[in-house]
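Listing S7. Sequence submitted for prediction.
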Amino acid sequence: MALTFTSDARPPSNTQLLPNRFLRPAFGELYGFDADADSSVTPAIDGALTTELSEPLTAENGDILVFEPASGGTPAFNTYSVDLDGTNDYIVVGASSDFSFGTGDFTISQWFKADVIAGGGNNYYALFDFRGSASDTAPTLYMSQQSGYRLYAYNGSTVVNYNTTPSVGQWHHVAYTRSGTTGTIYFNGTNVASGTDSANYNMSNPSPRIGAPPSGVTGQYVDGKIDEVAIFNSALSASDITAMYNSGIPADISSLNPVGWWRCGDNDSGTGTTITDQGSGGNDGTLTNGPTFSTDVPS
């Protein structure tokens, strides 16, 4: 926007001045202009301003601040996702005992946007699978188009099913928690299904795959986008999951102490083939067979 100042440093008539304690909206540009007004002119703003991030912002007598909202834009916290082609792309995380849960509690969380969910008996799409082969016992979460849109956790037998309407081309958040012997699926921040999960996930060093089944397992590669994958060695509460979903926009989860957190391009500038682990484990992920970074993110 263009600003023109008169000789007495007053703003144009169509310029709105900000109040003394202005809470800056989440996105946009904040501009400051030193008008050097003389003492006869009422100051535009006098005193400290508080921004959304509680940053100190001080204006002197005669200074004018104008907020110009951004046109569109991407949420600043999350700017990248990983795009999988549905043929052979996936993310693999280095093998680690951090993912050997035994009979303990854990949580696995991720965002996904499916481009294709085909019907049929063998169309099981692996959101995540910690197994190295079909004979291993480790956490998995698949989606399929059976009885609508099915998410199910599987550990040699099905633990939990959740059936709903297919929703291709939209971002969703899904999380699986185990607390004691209860496994629970959360979908878009809501507890949607529970079952008994008393398995001993005793693989010594699982190497999680994101978006692909392990060798020898009947299943499909995910055709779509994956974002903000996280693993916790505790069962997050329902309120934690709701806060993580954050009304459809990924939130900062560092306070929840993830053991693994792969931001799918953020922290790596959306380049290369490594997804740096932002959790405590330091187990980086690797883009395998050519996935690409995308700026299509949950918003």
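Caption to Listing S7: primary sequence and predicted structure tokens for the chain studied. The longest helix spans residues 238-245. The chain has a mean pLDDT of 78.
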